[in-house]
Amino acid sequence: MSLQIEFEQGRRALIVRLKGELDHHTADSVKARMEEAIAKEDTRHLILSLKDLSFMDSSGLGVILGRYKQITSKGGKMVVCDVTPAVYRLFELSGLFKIVSIQENERSAISSLEVAL
Predict the structure, then answer these.
(1) Is residue 114 over pLDDT 90?
(2) Distance of alpha carbon 33 from alpha carbon 18, whole angstroms
(3) What is the bridge-based pairing of β-strands 13-22 and 3-9?
(4) SS3 for 60?
(5) What transmembrane ranges does the database entry give (predicted)?
(6) Residue pair 18/49 in contact by the 8 Å Cβ criterion
(7) Contact 19, 48 (CB under 8 A)
(8) CB-based burial of residue 28 (10 Å sphere; 0-12 exposed, 13-18 middle, 19+ buried)?
(9) Residue % of the chain over a pLDDT of 70
């Protein structure tokens, strides 16, 4: 299975929705598309919705960590939401939750950033 990526740009927050498998086959493409979308717009904050992400490996963690660094270097925040149990476990084991905020859904992620879309 491949990966689909959907972008929704708000005022200063970009919502990225991933569907499918984020692994070593798809990581480079996702990284490039997210970097471009963040740079193209006046994106300060990033919301990453993983509701339809069926699988992720360490390559996916690298993509997420890289975008976290990209956003925080601009003074922004990154929030991950709608995390499936398997992906949640991977985040837990990697320690990613110590630096990346997690919210239950997109609405609460937007509220946590205190930005209007």
Answers:
(1) no
(2) 12
(3) antiparallel
(4) helix
(5) none
(6) yes
(7) no
(8) exposed
(9) 94
Burial class (CB in 10 A: 0-12, 13-18, 19+), 27: buried
| Closest residue by Cα to residue 48 from 62, 35, 29, 67 | 67
Residue whose tokens read 């963040």: 38
Q: pTM for this structure?
A: 0.91
Cα 30 off chain centre by: 10
Beta bridge partners of 78: 46
For 52-96, give the DSSP string.
EEEEE-HHHHHHHHHHHHHHHTTT--EEEES--HHHHHHHHHHTG
- The percent of residues above 90 in pLDDT, for the chain, comes to 79
